[in-house]
Design goal:
Blueprint (H helix, E strand, L loop, with lengths): L6 H12 L4 E5 L2 H13 L4 E5 L7 H13 L4 E4 L14 H11 L1 H17 L2 E5 L12 H24 L2 E7 L5 H14 L3 H12 L7 H12 L10 E4 L8
Parallel strand pairs: 1-2, 3-4, 4-5, 5-6
């Protein structure tokens, strides 16, 4: 489980642990990972963590080796790590673009490659957390939309490999979810418009033409369903869990 220290990743890790999964948590923030692992253990679950930067080419294999050594195998991989810089296109540098792809795309590719033999052995499940921007790009999200689109294409390609190798492969496209990054954006909007936070949120929902702001637990519940026996018919699916943000067919 990558990107497990906060937000959507933390919620997924906690939910899978409640369902009985033995979880290996990864992110760059050691202290935050320790807190999540402690939450799981206090609730009776089993968890360990490895802090590393998945932008480093050798880090994904280190994580896979650690997971296998810790729990004996790998049955579920959730690629959730990675955030990209927003902003006007002409202000985004080559370094911004390279960094955006380095973690969310290449980190996922390398982790999938390293974990694939273990997923094959377990008839396991690969779930990529992409994002609605991959199907509905926006002018402030040129990097994120491009990275997410690449991850969705990778998911479809690996789903075909998964048919051969007995591995379930799917992707989830969250829309706007109540994470720390969103709260920062909302606070900036509230200040800009001179509104209280709740009023700014209502305006955001109305302007974006969505049902509501998602919660991390919404995404976590879908991950748990996909990886469960009840969700095994899902394969090669790119699931928009975005409160209606994606308007295209």
């Amino acid at each position: 489980m990558t990107g497990a220290s906060r937000g959507i990743g933390r919620a997924i890790a906690l939910h899978l642990a409640r369902e009985g999964a033995r979880t290996v948590l990864s992110a760059r923030d050691t202290d935050a990972l320790d807190h999540v692992a402690a939450e799981i253990r206090v609730s009776g679950g089993r968890a360990d963590r490895m802090a590393l930067d998945l932008r480093t080419p050798g880090a994904p294999r280190q994580l896979v080796d650690f997971a296998v050594q810790t729990f004996g195998g790998i049955g579920i991989v959730v690629n959730n790590a990675g955030a990209t810089r927003r902003g006007e296109f002409e202000h985004l540098t080559d370094e911004d673009w390279s960094d955006g792809f380095a973690l969310k795309f290449f980190g996922a590719v390398r982790l999938t490659r390293a974990a694939w033999p273990h997923l094959k052995a377990a008839s396991g499940s690969l779930i990529n957390i992409s994002g609605s921007g991959g199907r509905t790009p926006g002018s402030q999200f040129t990097i994120g939309g491009s990275v997410n689109a690449a991850l969705l294409s990778f998911t479809k390609a690996m789903a075909e490999v998964g048919l051969r190798d007995g591995v379930q492969v799917n992707a989830i496209n969250p829309g706007t979810v109540r994470t720390g990054r969103f709260q920062t954006r909302l606070a900036a909007l509230a200040t800009e418009r001179g509104l209280a936070l709740d009023a700014a949120e209502r305006m955001f929902v109305q302007d974006q033409k969505i049902a509501r702001i998602g919660e991390p637990d919404d995404i976590a519940g879908l991950v748990a369903f996909i990886a469960s026996p009840a969700g095994r018919l899902l394969h090669g699916a790119l699931i928009d869990m975005d409160a209606g943000a994606t308007k295209t067919i």
